[in-house]
């Protein structure tokens, strides 16, 4: 099954979270309680991942459960480091058997901040 396309709007310098419920092709929630997630944010598939202090900025997955619910988040420091242009992302899931699935992908519109502290 192809990854779901979900475009995001992220404001620089604020905490970001995206709550999703992952389902199979029949619409039944997938138990993701023991799954791990990985992601990258880039300008294009060929470019390096966007970084903060030398480390790639990745969505952090939390709260995953048997009902398919998971929250992907970025800290205010991470969103502040995102350049003010259009980016792309994808999110992969690895289940307890080692099967890898690309669940989400899309574009990120970054809203630049005006206020700096």
Describe the protein in words.
By secondary structure, the chain is mainly beta. It has 1 helix and 10 strands. The strands form 3 sheets. Strands 1, 2, 4, 9 and 10 form a 5-stranded mixed beta sheet that branches. The protein has a 3-stranded antiparallel beta sheet with strand order 3-8-7. Strands 5-6 form a two-stranded antiparallel ribbon. The model has no long low-confidence stretch (mean pLDDT 94).
Subunit organisation of the chains: single chain
**Average pLDDT reading:** 94
Number of helices: 1
How far is the N terminus from the C terminus?
Answer: 44 Å
Helix-strand category: mainly beta
Instruction: Determine the strand fraction and express it as a percent band.
Output: 35-45%
Secondary-structure element string: EEEEEEEEHEE
Low-confidence sequence ranges: none
Radius of gyration: 15 Å
- What profile does the largest beta sheet have? 5 strands, mixed
* Overall number of strands: 10
Percent helix, as a range, is under 10%
Silhouette: elongated
What distinguishing features does this structure have?
117 residues, mainly beta, 5-stranded mixed beta sheet, 3-stranded antiparallel beta sheet, elongated
Summary, kept brief:
4% of the residues lie in helices and 44% in strands. The protein has 1 helix and 10 strands, in the order ββββββββαββ.
Describe the SSE topology.
Layout: E1 4-5, E2 8-11, E3 16-21, E4 36-42, E5 51-52, E6 55-56, E7 60-62, E8 69-74, H1 76-80, E9 87-94, E10 100-111
Parallel strand pairs: 1-10, 2-10
Antiparallel strand pairs: 3-8, 4-9, 5-6, 7-8, 9-10
